[in-house]
Amino acid sequence: MHTSQRSKVQIAAALLAITLVHSSFGQSASAQQQVFAAERSFARSMASRDLSAFADHISDEAIFFTGPTPFRGRKQVVDGWARFFSGTSAPFSWEPDQVEVLNSGTLALSTGLVRGANGKVIGRFNSIWRLEGPATWRVVFDKGSPPEPEDSQ
Q: Which of 55, 62, 83, 112 has the largest count of CB atoms under 10 Å?
């Protein structure tokens, strides 16, 4: 291969790589926005006392770490969380402050503060979301943790 042909091949390869990176970034940014929106919709289901909408955000094979024994599967999660939907006002609320999506665009982590009914920070949620259809994200793992020192500021 001549030097000029090699240069053209190298330039074409570089342009292809830039296009793929740009495309991947665009997909990641879009997926990240989708997960932020899904997480906010999930939180609204609690605020609006809509257990059915809550269930729509849960994967069939989800695992939620609520108490000493995890809830496994959508039915167990929804049945276990139904107690949080029994009153006229939500016992807690949450809001995502960070979402990270794998480059594959199929799994994402969301995290953010959990606040008690009085607005005081009581914890941090950590949820793993899976893309289960076109723009359809569902929670597959969920586990809370105590607030970090900087969370209460």
A: 62
- pLDDT at 145 > cutoff 90: yes
Tell whether the torsion through CA atoms of 120, 125, 131 and 133 is positive or negative: negative
Kindly state the average pLDDT of the residues 120-141: 97
Assigned fold of 3-152: Nuclear Transport Factor 2; Chain: A, (3.10.450)
The pTM (predicted TM-score) of the whole model is 0.79
Task: Sketch the domain layout of the chain as residue ranges.
Answer: 3-152
**Token digits for 98?**
């960070």
Q: Which residues pair with 92 in a beta bridge?
A: 116
Q: Say which residue, 29 or 19, is predicted with more confidence.
A: 29
Q: Are 141 and 61 in contact (CB under 8 A)?
A: no
What is d(CA 101, CA 143) in angstroms, rounded to the nearest whole number?
A: 18
Q: Which string of b and e fits 35-71 if b means at least 16 CB within 10 Å?
A: bbebbeebbebbeeeebeebbbbbbeebbbeeeeebb
What are the tokens at 31? 């997926």
